[in-house]
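Notes on consecutive records. When two proteins share a document, each keeps its own sequence and its own token line. Never mix them. Below: protein one.
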Amino acid sequence: MVTKPPQSPKADRREAARAQALKLQQEQLRREKRTRITILASVVAGLIVVGLVAFFILQSQEDDFAGAQSIPADVEQPATANAEGGVTFGVDGVAGTTSGDDAVNVDVYLDYMCPICGQFEDTNQQALDELREAGDITLTVHAISILDRVSQGSAYSTRSAQAFAFIADRAPEQALAFNEALFAQQPTENTAGLTDDQLVSIAESVGVPTDVAAQIPDLTFKQFVQAKTQVALADPDLKNAQGSFGTPTILIDGAPITSNWTVPGNLTAEIQAAKG
């Protein structure tokens, strides 16, 4: 029987040293793994906290106006808005004007992120402009925000609606063109929408003075938009047959339209019938 010669004390020490080094290396790897997991968990928790804080801040702001029957008196409104907070446009297309007592009142509730609102604009904008310029209608635009949830956290519906309100207040001659330009460059749902800089650029492109356009990111009329949105959601006269409110909602002399506006000419015919 062949026996293995015993290792020398020096070889034993080398073997023990290698085993100890391997043990230390494994412990270091475990510590590093635990550290990475801890850091990742902290980052995720931090993001969750930030998201929850933002959600509750937005929710609390909306709750301030939930169920409101009218916009509170202490909320700043555009000077060109009517009693319901809608911005009127008469023959000359300037915000805050009307086409006279004989004109039919056409109210359009819209959200600048709403694709169906974009379809409504594509189908009926030219006809409404012609009717308004002829003095047949006073057009009232109600820009609200019900689709912030589909703009990846950027609150695009609120930002664009308040931008319209701001332009209507500070540059009324360009407000209608700004409204139409927002739909001409409408972003799709589930995107972040247009940036503040892009909104400023669009305002400048329709003739809004640079110093006025530059103030759009200040969100001067954010509370106005939030309050107006809650008033619209609570208004029983704006609810559809299913008992809910959505955009676009179109009224003729205060009553919801009955025609199918997706067919060109139908809305015009209903307006002309109302005019008699």
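Protein two starts on the next line and is unrelated to protein one.
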Amino acid sequence: MKILCLHGKGTSGAIFRSQTSSFRARLADQNIEFDFLDGPFECSAAAGVDLFYEPPYFSWWKNDTVDDVRAAVARMNEYIEENGPYDAAMMFSQGCVLGSAALLLHQEETPHLPALFKTAIFICGGPSMPILEELGFHISATARERDGVSRDALMQQSGNSAILTQGANRWTGLESLNDGLSEDQLRKEIECPFRIDIPTVHIYGSKDPRYASGLHLSAICVPERRKTYNHEGGHDIPRGTQVSDNIAELVKWALAE
């Protein structure tokens, strides 16, 4: 089986390979080929990344606009056509934005073409709000405001200073950021004219400033075909034994669907 792997902004395919090494080691008997791509645009490191990883760092687009996201989707589709097919996509942060946009656009605009993937694994990422709006999704004003605030909070809590002075304790203040809403309440902030209709896995952390965004992404996927897992951490992939075991089992479930 082949899995296309899409990294987060300000990282790289090599960094995403390292970030996922713990749970991927538990999949060694599954005969999986992981294809880790680099985004086309070199950029500065994501907050805190340069403490642990050397450059270069990449992004999938320069601006979070409909045109830029659509261009990134087109580039990815060309890559899939040349190097696929792929059984699944595994994505982190901005990679989730790219992958979910590709799935939505394919489902809405080119459903007659073969499916991009049979299943998708989203880690600490949300959807593209500009793409959702273009496709007729309704996003509440509260969710839109929180999206901007949470991006700022992520920059602050993921930065080098926060890591060096506070470590894991830097993920704070999120209950007020999310207005104390439950997972189901946060999902209802987006009204969906249609949903991603393949099996999906959604891995997120309740201490992540972008936690609500991860729930919004799960909301635009068919509930009966999705599995969710809260690793209870921040905007990262914990490498502890229990979390790695759980994520590996979710990957196995997705590939078996």
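For the record: The longest helix spans residues 66-83.
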